[in-house]
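FW: tagging you since you asked about this chain on Friday. Here's the raw sequence from the shared folder, copied in full. Didn't touch anything.
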Amino acid sequence: MENLDYASWLREIDRDPRELVQVERPDPSRALVRMNDPENMNALSAALTVQLKRALEQLLADPALRVLVLTGTDPAFSVGGDWKLMVERAHSYAERDEGTTGLWQWIRYQFGGIARLVTQTDKVVIAALNGPAAGVALAWALNCDLVLAAEDAKLVTAFGRIGLVPEVGTNWALTRRLGYPKAFELFLRGQVLTGRDACELGLVNAAVPAPELPGLVRTWCDRVCRVPQHAVSMTKPLMRNACDMSWHQIIMAEEFAEPNTFTTRVHQETVRALLAGRERAAD
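HL: got it, structure written out here
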């Protein structure tokens, strides 16, 4: 590969004619984003990664969107980093004028950029693990608000075995889902977990037979859309930050948020209906 700087490399990536990300909008409130390179198990090539980030940026900027589902075209969710890309780019940075800073740009603005989109949006993002999930792709999934898996999906946690650290927010996600001792044990073991195993550990929210996964995803999308939008949008950042805040900080944040919800029509109408029901029951 030609020794391109980061900006030039992005321009080169844009010339790739393949459609490696598919978007479905069943209705304005929800979207399904599918990594679509099944012959390569949806490995995170440069083009797939760039296309995915752009699709997420566009969708999450849509005020009508309530919930976004991230998945892969069968047979995989994504096996993670493209090894050919690693050899061509990452392993050659020591010989470049910019050293590893060009690689840092890619990891921060592409891999990390997608993780930030998932965690910082107030919309709900659901990962649907339909097959193997590894590396950066597993990191993205674990950083989603809900993780649903096929029972026979494979979650590959072998970061240490290939000389890497858990990446792109994985340390945060693992320690909060499992606690430090279990998370560190998982890192040392480098286990491949089935969706069923991951559910029993608490790493994913639910695991079902593969044919049932689309139905489970729809059920959770329906649940999101039944909750008033403002309640979901305000609760997500509160919960996301609660673990990193003191009790005094989180209760203060809740105190500022709650009066806003009291003034919403859905709350007022619900309270009036409850009061009317009590009055009828008293009569």
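FW: The mean pLDDT is 89.
HL: agreed, and Residues 101-120 form the longest helix (20 residues).
FW: great, closing this out.
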